[in-house]
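pinning this so it doesn't scroll away 📌
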Amino acid sequence: MDKNLSLARIIGNLMGDGNATRRYLRYSNKNEFLLECFKKHFLNLYPETHFIRGKVNSGTLFVQVQNKEIINSLFELCGDFRSSSLKFLNFIKELNMKKVFIQAIFDDEGCVGLRTFNKTKEIKRNLEIASKFKVFLESIKKILENDFKIKCNKIISFERKLNKKVFVTWKLSITGRENFINFKKNINFSSSSKINRLEKMINSYIRK
């Protein structure tokens, strides 16, 4: 397995559903397959890694690494994993590394939306990811459009209220059958559930 691809994958996971501190690296997910995928790529880079496995109060599973040498090496490479400071890293240059990194982000943060409104019977379809950092989404949008020919919509913001505080979140969305097909061909998902939802969304178009 290519170590550069494994590096792109675990960095994408840590930026997605991960939590990286100077004490530990944690990847959380309800999908067992994605947890095992993270471990597989991590072990490809760091073969002797010991994982701590656990579950948070909500029931979400996680795997955790507490090796300071590994943690320091990833921080030196990436700088910051906090959601408000994410950025597309310059060393992810090869097309396959870009694909694996973006796939990891969509595996963790991506939503496959296929909805039918009962009154009008109108079908709404979209792929989307959200982030607190607009610049991060702008870099992903640029790569999707320039490298993978997947046209994206304008990045928009929306507000969320939590404990009387207002948080601004940015959303990147993809619409249109051709873009969905290009996404499936060039990026796709890792987990079967989202792969199937994407396939169902593409097949929901009625050909005249």
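📌 and the second one:
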Amino acid sequence: MDRRTTIKWVLAAGAAWPLVPHRLARAASGEVTRAAQPTLSERTVRGGAPTAGYGTDPDLMRVYPAGELWPLCMTPAQRQLAGVLADLIIPADERSAGAAAVGAVDFIDEWISAPYPAHVRDREIVLPGFAWLDAEAGRRASPTFVDLAPLEQARICDTICDAARAAPDLAAAARFFALYRDLTAGAFYTTPVGRKDLGFIGNVALARFDGPPADLLKSLGLA
């Protein structure tokens, strides 16, 4: 699972996979247990009857400390596993740091902790996926997935990284890995480090713009 392969996955899935707003809080501070659930506010509806709701939308012009928008659900052990798995998917190389170093765990913890239905569904895939990895490590005489040697960790991932080739009894684990791979890629490639790794040149102020390069226009049959 090298970086170039990951990029291909990202580009293939990019049109269909919704990313969270880029100003979603990425800092990780404090420890919240897995059992913690988001607290929903009360909203007044027609006739004055209260109903559960999400409260007001966050102000996307400010950065929120981790856990301020909603309680985070990953335990310290899960965050450690999340970082190891993120770095297996997008490891550090000569071009950039790995996914964990640029905040992928913070991004994913925020994502699966959100109270919205799609995020709750993702939480119900990711957290059992972590438990499956630890159980699989236990079958290989290791206390947890994190305690395995990197080669053994990669071998487990190789059994679930392609749903088309995964054994029928690993379908749920393969679904977890596909989701986690997408979340990791979304976290990495929306950071300045990830954009640089892709060669993305947007979001930069220019003193002038001379139009598309001539060789690009020629290759597209536009010049």
